[in-house]
């Protein structure tokens, strides 16, 4: 069985931790005082869900693939353990893309 109680509980704990961490804004920005490569993702998703695609892409260009990459990363040792090298390539590619975007947007 793919979803056991432990799996569901783990997912729930991670979702709650994530929500708690980002409730008052970016924790990285709060700690160090400058933006991180992920800053703007929440704003982008909120804009996207409200139907404002322009503001969503303006807030963060990579907001669409970001949750997919997070999902892949979180499940790399379970759902995708047979293709770890491919997963690693995807993560490295996305990290480079995210860093480049962060540097370019300033
Ligand atoms: Zn941030």
TrEMBL record:
The beginning of the lineage is: Bacteria, Bacillati, Bacillota, Clostridia, Eubacteriales
- Could you identify this protein by its name? DUF2752 domain-containing protein
Q: Which Pfam families match?
A: DUF2752
Residue ranges annotated as transmembrane are 7-25, 55-74, 86-104
Keywords assigned by UniProt? Membrane, Transmembrane, Transmembrane helix
């Amino acid at each position: 069985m793919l979803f056991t109680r432990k799996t569901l509980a783990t997912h729930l704990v991670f979702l709650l931790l994530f929500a708690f961490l980002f409730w008052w804004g970016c924790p990285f920005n709060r700690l160090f005082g400058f933006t991180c490569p992920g800053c703007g993702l929440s704003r982008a998703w909120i804009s996207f869900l409200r139907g404002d695609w322009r503001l969503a892409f303006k807030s963060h260009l990579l907001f669409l693939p970001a949750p997919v990459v997070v999902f892949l990363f979180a499940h790399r040792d379970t759902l995708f353990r047979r293709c770890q090298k491919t997963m690693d390539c995807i993560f490295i590619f996305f990290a480079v893309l995210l860093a480049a975007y962060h540097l370019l947007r300033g």
